[in-house]
Write a structure and sequence with these properties.
single chain, mainly alpha, 434 Repressor (Amino-terminal Domain), Arc Repressor Mutant, subunit A, two-stranded parallel ribbon, 13 helices, 4 strands, 53% helix, globular
Length: 258
């Protein structure tokens, strides 16, 4: 885990220390290999370690991800590298939810209400929200109160308005009962949609394959890229209905020995 007080004032020294640790366990470990581990170009890493330049914000975030830094630690790291004092509502912090924050809004309809706010004809009316999502008025009321308390949504002239213009994501690498509950709820919603929605309004497909588990890390990146690209495409038109996209990649056979 990243020690904020120890390393935030000497990011270059910390990186050099991490590189030397890896080289101590493997004498043939090269700077190019370290750059590949960080997913950063070797020239960029070399210039940073030699003190000729600073990392870009994107590359700083890559480093934070590779060393599994928490959102708070990442914020401190960016501040130390760029000296720009991120505010509490910085774009990165808006995108990343800590597990205890997600726990509050882990029922599926919270995120659905946030998406309802994107509809042109939306209403800040509990009965309307209830009818749109098929939930009780009480659930709609409590969910709306939670979202308002977290400053994710507000009401203006009888309409729902998102307080954030970016997507919400749980911090990477976290597994919890709240996240599991959220995915299970979406599985049930998908099962229901398969029964009640026409083919025109639902798209289900699957593929089964034999693969190399070592490629799963790269597959995760490709899935993330695909989700973002598809979301941008689908939200570029007139928004009339809220959809959920779920992607599952999981083993159906036992793990074989190496």
């Amino acid at each position: 885990m990243y020690e904020i007080n120890q390393y935030s004032s000497d990011f270059r020294g910390w990186l050099l220390s991490e590189y030397r640790k890896k080289k101590e366990t493997n004498s043939s470990y090269s700077l190019r290999a370290f750059a590949k581990f960080l997913e950063i170009s070797p020239p960029a890493l070399s210039q940073v370690l030699s003190g000729k330049r600073k990392f870009s914000r994107i590359n700083t975030l890559k480093v934070a991800k590779r060393f599994s830094l928490s959102p708070i630690e990442t914020k401190e790291l960016i501040k130390s590298v760029h000296n720009d004092g991120l505010e509490e509502k910085d774009t990165f912090n808006e995108l990343q939810l800590k597990n205890d924050e997600f726990l509050i809004i882990s029922d599926w309809y919270h995120l659905a209400i946030l998406s309802l706010a994107k509809l042109k004809q939306n209403k800040a009316d509990l009965k309307w929200i209830s009818d749109q999502l098929g939930i009780s008025v009480l659930e709609a009321r409590d969910a709306l109160l939670r979202l308002k308390r977290l400053n994710f949504i507000k009401e203006e002239s009888g309409r729902l308005v998102r307080a954030l213009n970016t997507a919400l994501n749980i911090e990477p690498g976290v597994t919890s009962s709240a996240i599991q509950k959220y995915h299970k709820q979406n599985f049930k919603l998908a099962e229901k949609a398969m029964e009640v929605e026409s083919l025109e309004h639902r798209k289900f497909s699957s593929v089964t394959m034999a693969l190399d588990p070592k490629k799963l890390g790269e597959a995760e990146k490709m899935i993330t890229h695909f989700k973002k690209k598809l979301a941008r495409f689908l939200e570029s038109g007139e928004k009339k209905r809220v959809y959920t996209l779920s992607i599952q990649l999981f083993p159906v056979s036992k793990q074989t020995k190496e």
